[in-house]
């Protein structure tokens, strides 16, 4: 019924596929074995070390100020409209000078996707995603951050992409104090295929 010569020819022509996938498997396993038999790298977080994110890291939201120290936001609500998860609430008002400002600017961090669309859509560049990634809460109500808190948040870090000396301060807020004067690049511990 079937031509055996044709089937043998097809299997011989497609043998390279199996050889290629087997070589890829060997390459992947060689990297795994390098990690298995090398010295492990453990970051002493938060007691002694802290990772400082790269500039492209999208962390906690930040409202920026202009050169006069006023909120740059004009409450145009573009960030709230473009947000795919509807986590931004903006209520505009006009101040005594006739400038439009946000009366309410809330960001629900529990719902946020950290996609950066709010940052891209802002015509005044008033909102940005900073480098802060260490925030948590026991209730979701505490993760709704208001306008004044967003104005006080830090932006991007000065020494990005490194591990710096730090110490854990156990208190009511449980903060980590970092010394950004010295640090090392943690990518040096990553094995690469030569």
From TrEMBL:
Function: NDH-1 shuttles electrons from NADH, via FMN and iron-sulfur (Fe-S) centers, to quinones in the respiratory chain. The immediate electron acceptor for the enzyme in this species is believed to be ubiquinone. Couples the redox reaction to proton translocation (for every two electrons transferred, four hydrogen ions are translocated across the cytoplasmic membrane), and thus conserves the redox energy in a proton gradient.
Quaternary structure (record): NDH-1 is composed of 14 different subunits. Subunits NuoA, H, J, K, L, M, N constitute the membrane sector of the complex.
GO molecular function, one term: oxidoreductase activity
Membrane-crossing segments per the record: 16-37
Cofactor(s) needed by this chain: [4Fe-4S] cluster
Signal peptide: none
Annotated membrane topology: Peripheral membrane protein
Residue span(s) of domain 4Fe-4S ferredoxin-type: 64-93, 103-132
Catalysis: reaction(s): a quinone + NADH + 5 H(+)(in) = a quinol + NAD(+) + 4 H(+)(out)
Primary residence: membrane
Compartment annotation: Cell membrane
Pfam families the UniProt entry points to: Fer4_7
Binding site for [4Fe-4S] cluster 1: 73, 76, 79, 122
Name of the top EC class for this enzyme: translocase
Binding residues for [4Fe-4S] cluster 2: 83, 112, 115, 118
Name of protein: NADH-quinone oxidoreductase subunit I
Family of this protein: Belongs to the complex I 23 kDa subunit family.
Enzyme Commission code(s) on record: 7.1.1.-
InterPro entries membership: 4Fe4S_Fe-S-bd, 4Fe4S_Fe_S_CS, NADH_quinone_OxRdtase_chainI
